[in-house]
Amino acid sequence: MNITEMKDPEESDDKLLQLYIGAASVSQKLIEVIKFEINKTLEVHEIGYRHWLVLKAIHFDEAKTPSNIADLTFSDKPTVSRITDYLVNISLLKRSRGIDDRRTVQLQLTKQGESILMAGLDAFQIVPKEFKAKLTNKEMKIISLMENCLISKH
Questions:
Q1: Residue 144's CB: how many other CB atoms inside 10 A?
Q2: Tell me, what's the pLDDT at 105?
């Protein structure tokens, strides 16, 4: 039985709640696998997952200022400042002043920063296999349902 075939609204609510709880568990496991693979891959460059998130945010134009990065990564601003200072010091980022507002600090990846970002993206090759190996049968059903929904939509 799929969710749209359920008759009793209370039963439907219970099933949806179970689905969301399972999805939260699955999401947490996915994040743990991603963190592990990124940290393992990038430890030779003396950076980790949180550093890589900053590089990724800048590369994919999700955020360009330290303040935007803090909002995006749910980090406090002093933490993002320390991370960006470190990334600037090891030549993975460069800072520049905003064109319209010189008080604004814009961040850009250096060529070395781009290279390390790509190494982190390459680490994602192994994530699906490692992730699925950590799932219970129930969680595997949830992820299969999610994958099928995503694939059928595109």
A1: 12
A2: 83
pTM for this prediction: 0.80
Alpha-carbon distance of 108 to 88, in angstroms, equals 10
Query: Domains in the chain, ordered, with CATH?
Result: 8-153 (1.10.10.10)
Residues of the chain with pLDDT under 70: 1-11, 98, 153-154
- Location of structure tokens 């940290």: 39
Q: What tokens were used for 111?
A: 């060529």
Tens of pLDDT, residue by residue over 79-108, are 999 999 999 999 999 998 867 777 778 899
What DSSP string describes the chain?
Answer: --GGG---HHHHHHHHHHHHHHHHHHHHHHHHHHHHHHHHHHGGGT--HHHHHHHHHHHTTS--SHHHHHHHHT--HHHHHHHHHHHHHTTSEEEEE-SS-TTSEEEEE-HHHHHHHHHHHHHGGGHHHHHHHT--HHHHHHHHHHHHHHHHH-
Contact between 79 and 70 under an 8 Å Cβ cutoff? The reply is yes
What is the rounded (10 degree) CA torsion for 64, 69, 72, 75?
180
